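TEACHING EXERCISE
Course module: macromolecular assemblies
Task: Read the component lines below, then compare them to the predicted structure of the full complex.
Student: A.B.
Group: 4
Components provided:
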Amino acid sequence: MRTKRFATLLVVLLAVAGMVFAGGGGQSTAAPAESKIVVNTMAYGDNSNAEGQSWVRIVESFERQNPNIDIQYELLYDEAYHQKVSARLAAGDVPHLAYMGADARWGAPWSESAQQVDHRPFLDGNYYDLGLIPPMGSNGEIWEIPLGTSNITTVLYMNGALVESLGFDTPETYADLVAMVPAARAAGLTVVSIDGADGWAWGSCLMSTFIARLSGDANWVSKAVAGQYKFTDQVFVDSLNLITRMVNDGVMDESAVLVDYGTNVANFSNGKALFMVQGQWAAGGIDPTVAENTLMLAWPQLPGEKPATAGTVAAAIQVGYGLTKAGAADPAVRDAALKFVQFYYSHEETAQRLIDGAIVAPILKNFQVPAELPTINKRKVTLAQTAGVTDVIDAFLGGAPNDALNAGMQQIAAGRATGTEVAAEVERLLGR
Amino acid sequence: MNRRDRQRVGIFLGMVAPGLVIYLFIVAYPIFYSVALSFSDFNPNAGGAWNLIGFTHYQTMIQDPYFWHSLKNNMIVVGVSVFGQIPLGLLLAYILYRKMVKGVNFFQSMVFLPQFLSTIVIGLLWRRMFSADGPVATLMQWFTGDPRAQFDLMLQADTVMYPIGFALIWMYTGFYMVIFLANMQKIDGEMLEAAMIDGANEVQVFFRLMVPLLAGTILVSTILAIAGSLKGFDLIFAITTQGLQRNNAMVLPIYMYQTAFQDFTNPMRFAYGSAISNAIVVVSFVLIGISNWVGKKLDPEEV
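Instructor-supplied answer key:
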């Protein structure tokens, strides 16, 4: 009987022990030493890309130099990152420091959970060039420290050598692009390539510039979201109808809606397209040989364009790392986090990001532009310095209306919807 | 209850409690939370008070065209699973069981192979197959002689489920084939031999012997297929690109995910997402109930 009881007790103890130890300890759950300040962080990247690899390297280097600070992090990328941000905030598991933005996509969850912190009191004016960090809140608040200056989303990349080989120059008007169509088709080339299978590319990289150019209002999108304009206004419908015109003119292929991001950049790198539509970040993905001959342009003059916004590009505030309210609540954690951020934004690391094409220009004071900067990145800086800036659609329009707009533009390109129908659906989903 | 019984009850509770506690926290609590959330206006991200608002989200849901579109696609996936994967798996298992082809082990491995691959990898593989100038488009260009021909079924809401259904069959048929094959091994071979001696051909043996004998397995497979089809998220998410393709191929789990995690314009998005996920559970129960009922009607003894 005693043996039976003992056996029963043993089984129960083992079961309980199993429950306790089954949880284990992961990368970000290891118990810290008591003397260490723990900065719980949500980082962006994964182990297979440069962002993630540099994150791990920088954290290890920082912790070696600062043994009293423990940067515990969760490293996620793309959809997984956005999903986890929503899930963690909804569960009340708020990190101290996180990769975040200030717009409708990157800033919305932090804004909704009231976790944004105004960084102005904490930013070292001797280290950061505060004049290069744009205000993000209605009262000039700075919700995060951007990795670089504005993030241009509507670049028209031009393969200079290929265009020249067909006997053309840099286009100044839309008609110049149309004029290239016969020669390009005869050579089996696409004139303007876009990763049209990705809905966001149509909004971020194309329509953001079309609506600004046709309306003559650099802030048309933000005003429309605020209710000053409607998406059913004729100028927006006309902007959408430009997609149809581009397909009909042969400037853009109907099959563009089947091309994804990787294929788009690969096609351009392989000389299958004269031009490519993408954001500034794609510069780093272009084959270095082609990149040497690649020009980064604002769109040429569009039909119906207003002079006020001629030559502009759409650009959003760059994302970066920022404190949360949870992180700012404890001065020791806050100071440790800001110390790490300054380390992460060091001149050396920023120079590397510039060389890799991850940012347009740094936000650091007394920054020396590296001499070995690739030609394409120098052109990127020139574009940023010379072109006027307009709103990026998904920086202001989020959720279902933005999804409907993106999918609608794909339908327009595929000849299955009109600009009027898509505009009406966006306005309907805004529910006003 | 004497002392000995009380001791037994104590031991019983001691044994059951750890599992029960885990169950309550990991399974029961999220279910009750989800149901409660769907009747409220609470946004866990924004915090604040819970206000019960009755069936508002369910009313919104039944008036939401995207919900019905997603449900329709889910039903197509269920149809492909139940009337595509299972019959095909059964047929392939029978062919291999009866050794109608040479290299039985080779074919068995090949058909089952997709089960060893990550669903995301399979999704990306098929996405590449269907992309512009991808393998399928190249074949079309070769057959038609039109260098601009493209495979565009993914761009239309009424055709998108054909390629996706094909990919689903390719991926899951091997799973059901192995289940059926394992159960066929348990059938007495002499029974089949006797039928053959009595003059039955392969078709008759298949339909009059094998199918009735495997009725229970078919029913279990059907329930697995229905449950898997309704909660299926990963393959369709990976095979489609963000935007038009995913909207066309939207199924309820993806719609729930997009609503709850991405639609920041809807302040009650988590509650509405919970209502959609509860609808998935209800639809699952209904379909599984119908399967059981049909199974019992067809062969009450086997089932």
